[in-house]
C-alpha cells in the first residue's frame, strides 16, 4: 500500500519538475506588452469591430475607451448589434455623440444567424465585410469584446508590437475582473491553466506549432485574415480565438518569405468588466467550452480528469497520508510537489493582486475545475452544451 502511494506521489513530483522546467516556463507569466516609445513613420489604418449582444450596461465605459484611444493613425469603430433587446445600438450612438465623435462609430444590425456559424463570429464577419468596403480599407482589424475597457495607449502599443516585429496577429489576455470571493478564488486559476495549456513563450516562437489568442483583444492584419480565407474557416469554433490563431500561424509557414508570427501576452491595464460574481457564472463559463476543448472525446475526458487529479490532488493528499501514517518519504514528496505548485501559481496571483495564500488552495480550485469539465461533458450528452447568451451551440 505504502509503496503504491509513494510511487504515485513521486510521479506527481516528477511531473511538476517537468512542468516547471520544460513547459515553456508558462508559470512565469512574463509575456507582457512592453511600453514602447517607438514612433512609426506611417501609422496603419485600424478598424475596431465589436460584436455586441445586450451590452448596453457596459458600453458607456468600454466603447468610450476605444473612442478616446491615444492613436496617431486612423481608427474607426464598427459595432455590430447582434439582435439586442436592451437598446445596445441606441446606447452606443449616444456614447459616440457625448464623446463628440459620432463620425468615428458605425452601428450596424446583425443579419439572422446562418447555419454553421456561432453568433460572435457571424457578428464579427459582418463588421469586417462592412469595413472592407471603406476606401481605403483598414490595414488592421482590432477584434474586441464589448466588455473590454482599453487602456488609452493600448492600440498604439499593439500596433507598435505588430509593426516592429512584423507580426500577423497580436493578442492580449486582458485582465479579467477579480473582485468577488469566487472571482479571486477561480479567475486567476483560469488564466494559470490557460497558460499551462498554451505556454505563451511557445505561442510567440514562430518555429513552434503552439498557437493561441485571447478573444477579448485581437489585432490582426487584414492581409493575414484574407490569406487564411477569412473568419469562415473558424466559423463553427466555440474557442474561436485559439482556432483563429492556429489558422494564422499555420498559414504563415507556407509563405515564401520569412515566416510571420503571432504574439500573445498579458496585461494589467486593459481589462474586462464582465462580472463573475457567483460560482454559477464561472461554472457556466468553463462548462460551455471545456468538453469542446477535448474534442468531445470520452477518452480525452477520462485522461484529463485523471491527469488533473494526479497533478493537483495527489500532492496534498500524499502529504496528509504521509503524516498520518508516519511515512515521511511520502509526506516529503507530496509537500515538495505542493510547494512547487504553489510557487508556480504565485506570479499569476501577483498579476491579479490576490493573496499569496491562495497558492496553497490550487488543489481545491483544480478539483472544482475538474467538476466543471465533467459537467461540460454531461451537458453536451444531454444536448444543452455550449450555451451562450440564449443560444445553444453543439459540435
Structural write-up:
With 395 residues, the protein is an alpha/beta fold. It folds into two domains: 2-26 and 286-392, no CATH class; 31-276, Spore Coat Polysaccharide Biosynthesis Protein SpsA, Chain A (Alpha-Beta Complex), CATH 3.90.550.10. The protein has helices spanning 2-22, 59-67, 88-98, 119-131, 154-164, 181-197, 200-203, 222-227, 240-252, 279-287, 290-293, 298-325, 328-351, 362-381; strands spanning 46-52, 75-81, 105-109, 140-144, 148-149, 167-175, 217-221, 261-272, 387-388, 391-392. The strands form two sheets. Strands 3-2-1-4-7-6-8-5 form an eight-stranded mixed beta sheet, with helices on both faces. Helix 3 links the parallel strand 2 and strand 3 (105-109). The radius of gyration is 22 Å and the shape is elongated. It starts with a helix and ends with a strand. The model has no long low-confidence stretch (mean pLDDT 93).
